[in-house]
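Honest question from a wet-lab person: if I give you the sequences of every part of a complex, can you actually get the arrangement of the whole thing, not just the pieces? Trying it with mine:
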Amino acid sequence: MYQYDKYDQQMVDTRVAEFRDQVERRLAGELTEDQFKPLRLMNGLYLQLHAYMLRVAIPYGTLNSKQMRMLGHIARKYDRDYGHFTTRQNIQYNWIKLEDAPDILADLASVEMHAIQTSGNCIRNISSDQYAGAAADEIADPRPWAEILRQWSSFHPEFSYLPRKFKIAVIASDEDRAAMRLHDIGIQLVHKNGELGAKFYVGGGMGRTPMIAPEIRDFVPADELISYAEACLRVYNRYGRRDNKYKARIKILVHELGKEEYTRQVEEEFAHMKTLGLNPPVEELARITEYFADPAFDSNASDELDLSDPDFKLWVDQNTVAHKQPGYAIATISLKPKGGIPGDASSAQIDLMADLAEQYSFDELRVTHSQNIVLPHVKKSDLYALWQKLDQADLAPANLDLITDSIACPGLDYCSLANARSIPLAQKISERFADLGRQRELGELKLKISGCINACGHHHAGHIGILGVDRKGTENYQLLLGGSAAEDTSLAKITGPGFDEDGVIDAIETVTDLYLKERQEDERFIDTYRRVGMAAFKEAIYG
Amino acid sequence: MKILTGNDLKTGDVTWWTGSDWSRHVEDAVDVGENFEAILHEEEAARRVNVPYAIEAEMTDDGPRPAHIKDRVRALGPTVRPDLTLKPADPEAGNWVI
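Yes, you can. This is the full assembly:
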């Protein structure tokens, strides 16, 4: 894992001191809320329905056990004993006191963490594949590139006041586990003629105008990756709309200019950028990459597994995937227990996950955009002991990628932007479909729930999506079908008129029943939907 | 009726204007009619409450009930965590919100 150098640490410590002074001035009345609001947002501090909310950055979803324990400590000392892991691979605390915020940021800084650029019209936390550095199918480790992008984008003076927020994802596998093409910039590391480089996709996103990012360059040499990203941002910063917040994201610019014209301008800027020598020095690239060297794997580790315990076997089947190193597995800890709140973890659970990472996963954890936690490097011979400890802490639902592994935004229970509650739907669906045999019969089924059009719950990308809306003061839920955040990226379509809470759950049961009736061979829900089409599902739902 | 609400500056807690002070409980809120601008201005300056504002509500047997569900969620707490609401001992409290 990357470790701060003196510059990183100094930047973060200086920001803590600066914010402490700003909070004191706000409490003393020297700053009005209008003056203070942009300052607190620059430090990830929002004002939500019930209290201040602090969003903490977890760079590309990667953290060590010391950092994880600090997240548990903050939940226990300053919040209400839990944290909420988000669809941006971050964590949010819902009950923060303004006067505590500087101390929390100081605590975070002590473990090389912060909340900088988790809000505002800047480049947000870089997201990546939660299996990075462990996946059997990756062509390179995306984390050094995510880290270089993090350093490049942190406090970038030219990109601190973009037309709108900006999100970048980096992956290195053909299988997309990071919703890469639904980011403002999606970067896929690729090889071409033996050389490492990147494909660039620009102009994707969800929100009120969902778009899939088109590919604008099939290969950028690795040592020019930052310059190309800079060129993409420069064109956006210059021409992105600032007159209308709802048309200010780069996807609108790319759409309005057209991919060809946007690309032409980027290429022109790129040619100029290359003359400026902004690529990271090779020594710096090498220095950063060293931090991401493989841990000391046991080369004699066995692939043998005793699967005689049926519950353990289910968990292994569902929640572990192939590791690049023989004798090891990648294990996902599901934060989706029956009736639970997707992404929530108590401080005790956070502490336990930190302990288990230290004991079984070379001190590493990952946060996924599906609001789960990954232990990336678990020796197969340790899996049973790990599972037993997770099971005792209600952290072993064997439901990864099944219908109860839903994504849900905080919704109207917490969020001031929301129009409807989303968590109760996730809870009720997890109860309706609680039978694991039934879930496995349905197979891979990505269910994503948003409480408003801003789409933090990724409803556009759900095989089944739910969008909560306000209809004359009453919560109403639109059902969407056919989305995907994976390499077969697609946007879901609304089925028709919305439902009340129970009605939408009944409708989900109707569409899953139709899927089981119509599917052929090994088709997933999304495959059957694409083959059969919306009409049959609409007919089943509405008659 | 119109009632005033905001978030406590230091803690972020949801608060309601009682006529002379701020309370955590919406039951204590009073009808401020149409003449609330001066109160908002004064309270904003007093730095006790962050960005107070007026909302519509109706008077019920249980006291003022905000017209919009968002303010009812604010008044009670998250419906998905009854233990964190202002009425943790009342499992039916969430029904008041919906």
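Two things worth pointing out. Chain A has a mean pLDDT of 97. Residues 310-392 of chain A form a domain with the Alpha-Beta Plaits fold (CATH 3.30.70.3340).
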